[in-house]
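thought: user wants a sequence for this fold. calling inverse folding tool.
action: design(structure=
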């Protein structure tokens, strides 16, 4: 159910994503030129004769890029095609000197076939998103229109760098199979999952700001409960999670309004305006480009052996889905496991803190999710640093959080004191949690004698409340606990206090 301004509508969303990730490789997909097109590198210095489309130059497939595609395919739980082809997608645009892009034909199996990734659905439960295919293709160069008042410039350093395009699947033959993206949040979680898989495998930096990950967003809407897919639009070349979510929202609202006023949606290609947050028609279906794909006569079919796939399988690290399963087996719930695998930096931080002691898992997860994640824009798991105050880095290391958690479970400090120590660490207090506790005299009182005295005092001082408690108003226990905690300067072990009070008031 899609909500507009807090009001739920009778409409639901169907979303398909075509995600391009740039393959990490020293050289380009079909040439030996460097694949590094960093903006600091002088334009047109990483361009071979092949990339420049000089007559008679022949492309040579880069085996490493193929291995990267296979790796990603395995990470997407996908079938790897033993045989696939390259085709020319014809179009003229000055960012690609060949006049065509070498890609893999849409009608034939590409290097990576049907697969799936698991995300957290909007209901908080794991959800499988089906992948239709992933294929290898060439990236185009960059045109610069803002350098000169009357001229445009072309930089071909990026021309021919390998891209892997990953396309989600809609099971039109089995519409009850709802393994596809149905909300802006799910779209973001899907893209983050793709990003983390690519990074964990070293297949791509998959960084949207840098342009090494981009997405085309297909959106359609339909009445809740409907079993047919309606006409979708495609918004091209989206480069931030925020804009993707905004484009989906806007596009869904636009389509719903068209249907509700008796119109029909046409299958258009849209462009998104970052400043307006709106989509507008770039070209309509009638103007759809006919790319006239044809098999590239310069390239042999790509054949992949079982041995090659086996060899790559041996090198696969633990991927987010497996990490989540491991966390659940350590006693975390699905939500916590999903949050802690949002990035490999976070899961590594968590693993370092837990350090194999599974009794730490739940408390560490709680502290991370409710305290550290409370400032996602400030907390950088990679550096384990909280930088909420500009220029001032406050370090909370996994080891420190682990020590804090251990102190609580050893009854050395209570939860309230732990929070105080935590805040002091955030405020730049030096030392380990133990040292800070010592420095500020924050030792929990577990000594029953000392607590007993405070308990007796509070009971003696409040005869009326004691009477009420005894006649059934057991909610008053909190009142007594509060009194004892106050009397002990917040240092008493709350479990001991509770136990003693219950005994004495019985
Ligand atoms: P194209 O070749 O025009 O890009 P595809 O058939 O490859 O189209 O689909 C592109 C993406 O759009 C896929 O992720 C697919 O699942 C998605 N898609 C197809 N139909 C719809 C629809 N009705 N609503 C939303 N997404 C759709
Ligand atoms: Mg497309």
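)
observation: tool returned 506 residues.
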């Amino acid at each position: 159910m899609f909500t507009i301004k807090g009001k739920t509508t009778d409409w639901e969303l169907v979303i398909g994503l075509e995600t391009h990730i740039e393959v990490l490789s020293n050289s380009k997909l079909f040439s030996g030129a460097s694949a590094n097109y960093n903006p600091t590198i002088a334009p047109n210095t990483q361009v071979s004769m092949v990339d420049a489309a000089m007559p008679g130059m022949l492309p040579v497939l880069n085996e490493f890029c193929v291995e990267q595609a296979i790796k990603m395919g395995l990470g997407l739980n996908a079938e790897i095609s033993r045989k696939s082809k390259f085709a020319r997608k014809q179009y003229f645009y000055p960012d690609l000197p060949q006049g065509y892009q070498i890609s893999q034909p849409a009608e034939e199996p590409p290097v990576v076939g049907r697969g799936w990734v698991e995300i957290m659905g909007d209901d908080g439960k794991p959800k499988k998103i089906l992948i239709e295919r992933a294929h290898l293709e060439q990236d185009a160069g960059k045109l610069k229109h803002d350098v000169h008042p009357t001229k445009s410039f072309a930089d071909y350093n990026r021309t021919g760098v390998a891209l892997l395009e990953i396309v989600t699947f809609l099971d039109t033959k089995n519409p009850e199979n709802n393994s596809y993206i149905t909300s802006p949040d799910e779209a973001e979680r899907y893209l983050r999952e793709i990003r983390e898989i690519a990074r964990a495998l070293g297949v791509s930096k998959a960084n949207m700001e840098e342009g090494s990950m981009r997405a085309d967003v297909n959106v359609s809407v339909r009445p809740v409960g409907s079993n047919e897919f309606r006409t979708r639009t495609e918004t091209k070349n989206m480069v931030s999670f925020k804009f993707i979510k905004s484009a989906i929202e806007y596009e869904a609202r636009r389509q719903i309004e068209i249907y509700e006023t008796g119109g029909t949606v046409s299958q258009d290609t849209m462009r998104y305006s970052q400043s307006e947050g709106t989509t507008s028609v770039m070209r309509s279906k009638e103007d759809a480009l006919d790319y006239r794909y044809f098999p590239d006569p310069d390239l042999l079919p790509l054949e992949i052996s079982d041995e090659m796939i086996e060899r790559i399988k041996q090198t696969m690290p633990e991927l987010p889905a497996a990490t989540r399963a491991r966390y659940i087996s350590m006693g975390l719930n699905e939500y916590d496991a999903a949050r802690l695998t949002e990035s490999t930096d976070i899961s590594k931080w968590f693993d370092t803190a837990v350090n194999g002691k599974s009794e730490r898992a739940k408390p560490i997860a709680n502290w991370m999710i409710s305290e550290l994640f409370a400032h996602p824009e400030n907390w950088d798991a990679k550096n384990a640093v909280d930088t909420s105050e500009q220029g001032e880095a406050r370090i909370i290391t996994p080891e420190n959080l682990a020590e804090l958690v251990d102190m609580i479970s050893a009854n050395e400090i209570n939860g309230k004191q732990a929070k105080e120590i935590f805040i002091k660490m955030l405020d730049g207090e030096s030392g380990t949690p133990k040292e800070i506790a010592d420095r500020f005299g924050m030792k929990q009182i577990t000594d029953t004698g000392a607590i007993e005295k405070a308990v007796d005092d509070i009971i003696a001082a409040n005869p009326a409340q004691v009477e009420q408690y005894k006649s059934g108003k057991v909610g008053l226990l909190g009142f007594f606990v509060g009194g004892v905690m106050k009397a002990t300067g917040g240092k008493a072990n709350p479990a001991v206090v509770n136990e003693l009070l219950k005994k004495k008031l019985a």
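thought: summarizing for user.
answer: Here is the designed sequence. The chain has three domains: 3-309, 320-439, 448-505.
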